[in-house]
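Subject: two folds for Thursday's group meeting

Dear M.,

Sorry for the delay on this. The cluster queue was jammed most of the week, so I only got both jobs back this morning. I'm pasting them in the order they finished. Each block is the input sequence followed by the predicted structure tokens. Could you check whether the formatting survives your parser before we put anything on slides? The first protein is the one we discussed after the seminar.
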Amino acid sequence: MVHVMSNNAASGGVRRRRSGFGLARLGFAAAMILATPVQAQSDQMTPIAIPAQTDAIVLGTGKLPGATAPEAWHSQYGSVFARNVTIATLTPFLPDPSKATGTAVIVAPGGGFKTLSMENEGYDVARALAAKGVAAFVLKYRLNPTPEAMPAFEKSMTAMFSSIARAPRPKPDAMMAGLAPQIADARAAFALVRKRSAEWHVDPTRIGMVGFSAGAMLTMATTVAGGDAKPAFIGNIYGPLAAMTVPAGAPPLFVALAADDPFFGNSGFGLIESWHAAKRPVEFHLFEQGGHGFGMYPKTTTSTGWFDEFTRWMAMHDLLKPAK
């Protein structure tokens, strides 16, 4: 496991910074990855009833234009996934008031913008953050439509995987336009948490965002093009790491990736270099093994420790201490 850290460090020795919103360099399809854990779990997609989600709050960004298939959930890899999400919601996981730090995190699960890993990269992450005194909010953002019938959905996912290598690389503006609904959902999530910050014992200046795979892509897009969202800190967990233009005053960035990630493990670390060259705080953990989509799954690889490293990083930035 390699740990690469920088906190406003000099940029000497860093390779030439590339311009543009660099996530496009990997191609939109490459970022639209189903978060698949490399472990001994069934990969069979089994339809399940939609959970009650009694605590979920509708964000008010409207129904996804043109969507017709109803929301559906399924189990896979010992976890649960949602698809055909047409109405965005935010589910709070609040800490015990005696442990509350005032820090909050918007949690963006992955799933290739076609599904959402609601448990492994959503609820389980939020519960673990709440146990640390952090108010966590799982963002169920709107997704690209998929076939309603499970066999057709499985076929469409197979086609998506097979097309990743030959997918055209879109221009940055086109890619950002394609993420407009999801960015709007993220902005609405930040606005809601700030609006109810007193009720939820959250410091409105200490709201961050952590995303996984496609959720990491959304986290970076929200940082760059999210307008008033302005995350105070961000986490990119096995998302694309292509170079990008770093916005002025960019927030501290935490990155975790496995070297054997089949999608992003051999694509370079331009994002890290961009943050480092811009003299913005960045911490990078490259785990030897872990594959893609490890999330909160217990594994024998050191990638399981990403969450502990993330919360240590938060503590280093005084985000686990009550605000003065």
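Second protein, same layout:
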Amino acid sequence: MATQKYWIRGIGPAAMAGLAITTGALSLAAARLRRHMALTEQHRLHFALLCKAMEDETLAAVLDTYDSEVPADRHRQFLFANALYTNALHAYRTGAMSLGELYGHLRVICQNPIFREYWEITRHHRASLRRSSEEAEVGRLMDDLAQDLLEADTDEWWVVGHPPGEQRERNHP
């Protein structure tokens, strides 16, 4: 009987604390998995909608929210540029790509003048993002990169910019 009382008073609370910690860790892992699955489903739906819009001008017209007139062919190219960007953003958000890898990917796609035009013409689209959101932070990273590439006085684009982790001063409204 004394042994049972010792276990209840001594080891029992430690075991309960361990169980509580384990339960908390499993709950956190489950929440991360649900977020990952929700992001993936949202990305899949977004991509399917973009594909439909690229194939059908009447559907693409619904996504024409630019401040200026954009010809139908260019609009489809912008939709594709959006698909490229959101695919990279999704890979980063789900952990398939690090921030450094995302930066390198964005540096490559930013070499295309159509993508740069898309990025500039959709600047006002990003203005409504919550400033602290991942998407807004990546958007600012992309803005800085696009500006660095524009100001670069070298043809060696792969060395232009300041990859994440490097100290830099840049003013963002």
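Two things I noticed about the second structure. The chain has a mean pLDDT of 81. The chain is about 70% helix and 0% strand.

Cheers,
T.
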